[in-house]
């Protein structure tokens, strides 16, 4: 089990996290959602800790706790007074190795997760559109499945499905313990050896490659749902940052795709990284706005493939087609004329400032270390990334704008608004939703 410790003595608190390198991308068809459901079940007890007692014990220590599941990973966290670190280590190691629950408890929690899906996906047209869009973008890659799972898979999910997933992936060699805050490195190592060093280990299953076939033409999805306004999203397949692109020194990388990934990060900020960025300025703040909202986002790092997404909501009297054309025109403008040094300096300064401000939060320090470990980056990757981003040139930004935004890499999804039932009452969140 990997142990990463980052002392920060500004306050007498500590964040303790366990990251498991398993997420929805590691599921198989028919059991989508099991990684997230298992996250819920990890709070349902061990032979020595009753269901629900984990959270109560952390609260009694003066702390707070939560958990999260993504396509790439599952994480568990506690923020506690640093003097209580040993107590949460003991609790977390116990449930990591000894999680157990009855079929009846599983069935009850399954209903909570199904309600979570209804509340956060099925009741939200944009969420439903993006879920359907992922299934169009990817044919073979497991990113095509939703993290919460398809409802039909949840309906047929069994307790043994979750138990098998737990036994398969929850082993120390597939996990990292990350501690940040008012702690001593040597003391944390002693505690980690005591509580995690003796946990049983088993071999991980082979992660078989599920390579996405090359896309050879634009894909389109028209999605009908009750909504007040139309919405359009354009997703382009682009490269992400790879570990080879962040070597353990600040020396320039020879990994060309990672160089492009860094330039795409800057392009995203130029288009949508601040109030006066290109997309809001051209589409929403002009004398004749095309859109009520417009933006771009790009993930940079992930275990799986990356997308660069543009999106917009048409203004009154405008269509999704017009917004789509306006979004693409702004990227084409960068490809043709490039970006100014003033823009480049502004987005770099904002990025650096944002990364520095993140360090004010002990939780964010631990989170950044966890994400880096999941993706195979070296310690100190956040600082290496800043140094690399500072060196991105205007020519590189112009080059990626010209290289990656053609039709053959594009999927367009359009929300076609349907009448909204004004008599329908908002859904009330079920007890037990954690996030």
What's this entry about, in short?
It comes from Rhodoferax mekongensis. With 435 residues, the chain is α+β, with helices and mostly antiparallel strands.
- Give the total of domains: 2
Could you name the ranges where pLDDT drops below 50 across 5 or more consecutive residues? none
- Binned strand content: 15-25%
CATH homologous superfamily label of the largest domain: Metalloenzyme, LuxS/M16 peptidase-like
Which fold name is given in CATH as the topology of the largest domain?
A: Cytochrome Bc1 Complex, Chain A, domain 1
Based on helices, strands and strand pairing, what is the structural class? alpha+beta
Distance between the termini: 26 Å
3D shape: globular
Helical region count? 15
Strand order, main sheet: write it out. 1-5-2-4-3
Report helical residue fraction: 40-55%
**CATH architectural grouping of the largest domain:** 2-Layer Sandwich
Protein name: Pitrilysin family protein
Organism: Rhodoferax mekongensis
Domain Peptidase M16 N-terminal: 9-148
Pfam family, one: Peptidase_M16_C
